[in-house]
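Below: protein 1.
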Amino acid sequence: MDADGEKGRGTLLHTLDRGLQVLEAVAASESGATAKALSRQLEIKIGTCYHLLRTLVAAGYVVRLSGGVYDVGPRAASLSRHLQRRAGPSPELSVILTRLHNRTRETVYLSGWQHGTPTLQHYLTGEHALRVGALDVGYVGNMHARASCKAILAHLPEEQVAAMLKGVPLVALTPNTITDFDELTVELARVRGRGYALDLEEFRPGVVCLSAAFSDEGGIPVGSFTASVPVTRFTERQAGLAAQVREAASMATTLLRTGRIVVPSAG
């Protein structure tokens, strides 16, 4: 077997995976991370961790600061900008999200289509710093439990929703999560009637989300705006937050239908 044989590919892929884990952990750290901290966090031998970090530094993806702290390097920052240009929202939609954030003072999210899946594209953290840890830009999971996705699904053709979710295990993330497809279709009908979707502690305990979808000139949903609030503030804020996410969605729909912005389709 040559150097590019099956065994060699397995070793290289494992090393690449570890290197990406290190890069991701460095990027996620608030003020950089040391090799020892990364070694403990990722359960990587300290020698291996140093080797991966040296490789990432040499490639420009990581920089070594004083005190042995590693932070994101220029090539990683450039990669991030390229990814944001390809998958991020248009400037017009980002402005609407900022307006929603300024009006609600809560954590707000913008989702849209990427490769045929509703995808979290951007968020702004509220004054009370409510952030659901699992949610970050690019997140696509658990559509049945998230208001941002239910707002979009409610306005898709029933056969498309069935193709995406029928027969797929709907994981119970909390005691409130809808795990039956037929029950989910009933909930989507409620969303259409109400004009916005709710996540009543279905994705994370203690967190409620309200979301409204925006659509193109053909009436096909292409994204949603979401506000997230602690359950303790939900009752007093529901009416206002519902009106504000619906206003944001209406503004985006108007821009789309007048041709002032173009976003990727669901296809």
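Below: protein 2.
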Amino acid sequence: MDTLLQFLGLILHIDKSLGVFIQNYGTWVYAVLFLIVFCETGLVVFPFLPGDSLLFIGGAFAATHEMNLYALISLLLVAAISGNTVNYWIGRAIGPKVFDTNIPVLERFLDRAALQKTHNFYERHGGKTIVIARFVPVVRTFAPFVAGVSAMSHARFQLFNIMGALIWVLLLVLLGYFFGNIPFIKQYLNVIVLVGIGAAIVPVALGAVWKMSRGRNSKA
């Protein structure tokens, strides 16, 4: 039991204990990283998983040759694309029921307020939400689900899905590969991740405020 709890602890906090996991489980780390990214992007009940920091730290370990950079990028791309695709189809299948009816099982796990916020965000910004959402925790998990709920065409969704996955995975993994082992960055990684999230959210928020003010001026 203790071993199982330790293993689960490593998985839940793998962004902070990736080195320990690699030492203990070797190449199984690729399967675990794949599973974490797939679940975070593919299942709406796992928005708390550490996607951004995990990609960055994975790139840092690839720089020290403890992981293979090309295998890491390939697996994470497949996980990100397939996860979003599964989430999209879940949205197409059960999404309308979530918004229109009360389902006890879903009510227990889904954050309706976060889902509604993402729905409003998606309605305002259209397909580009799928790309931008990759860099915004929680929104990243709900955006493909809402795309399914909103009946976005599958071909159009996949265009933005693949584009967003390429930008997200390549940017964060390569940033980790080239800069992740710098002592200052390692020490303040959490702060840097928060700044990065802010950099992704602020332009969108400012754009929304500008559109709102423009709409009010036109009405006036």
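The mean pLDDT is 74.
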